[in-house]
Amino acid sequence: MLSAVYISEVSEGLRASDIEQLVADSQRLNSARGISGFLVRAGPNFIQYLEGDRARVAALLRRMETDPRHRAMKILAIETIGVRRFDGWSMRYFYGEKDGSVRLESFLHHWSGDDAALINTVVRICSASQRHSHDEQPAIPIGSFSVLLKDC
After folding, report:
1. How far apart are CA 94 and CA 86, in angstroms?
2. pTM score, whole prediction
3. If you count Cβ atoms within 10 Å of the first and of the last residue's Cβ in the chain, which end, N or C, has fewer?
4. Contact status, residue 99 vs residue 19, Cβ threshold 8 Å
5. Residue 135 to residue 140: CA distance in whole angstroms
6. Element (H, E) at 129
7. How many angstroms separate the Cα of 25 from the Cα of each of 22, 70, 92, 137?
């Protein structure tokens, strides 16, 4: 299995309802394809973690490169894994409040460690959101990063 983290710029004019539809579609399609992970809206960026069958994750990343809902997609880390970290998450969605978003973006853009360490850090932050989620919605779970990033 393969895991990957990328960052991209949210396309201008993309509304919250567009992101909600994106997440709903991703939950359905990822579930059918055996892909799990999460999407983060951090200020002007999307950050996404994906895991699953190597060929399926690679194919999804290639399709996403041309998705008009974002641009300047940059894969930050890729790692071979033996066990899923987010088996029950076909796609979770989190947003970052302004202060938390700036710190998350800066953290990712200035990362100097290896791929496995970056993935583990992103996973740790998003796993912690399970314990700190404030604004849960039945179809699209959402958690704020304002508290979580104080540990970084």
Report:
1. 14
2. 0.76
3. C
4. no
5. 10
6. helix 115-132
7. 5, 16, 12, 16
Longest dimension (CA), the chain: 39
- Helix, strand, or coil here: 125? helix
- What secondary structure does DSSP assign to 41-109, as a single string? EETTEEEEEEEE-HHHHHHHHHHHTT-TTEEEEEEEEEEE-SS-S-TT-S-EEEEE-HHHHHHHHHHHH
Q: What is the pLDDT along the chain (152 residues), one digit of tens a residue?
A: 999 888 899 999 999 899 889 989 999 999 999 999 888 887 788 888 899 999 999 999 999 999 999 999 988 888 889 998 888 888 887 766 544 555 666 666 666 667 777 777 777 766 655 544 444 433 333 343 333 332 22
Q: Which residue has the tokens 């583990």?
A: 120
Tokens for 150, please give them.
């104080």
- For β-strands 70-80 and 36-42, DSSP reports them as unpaired
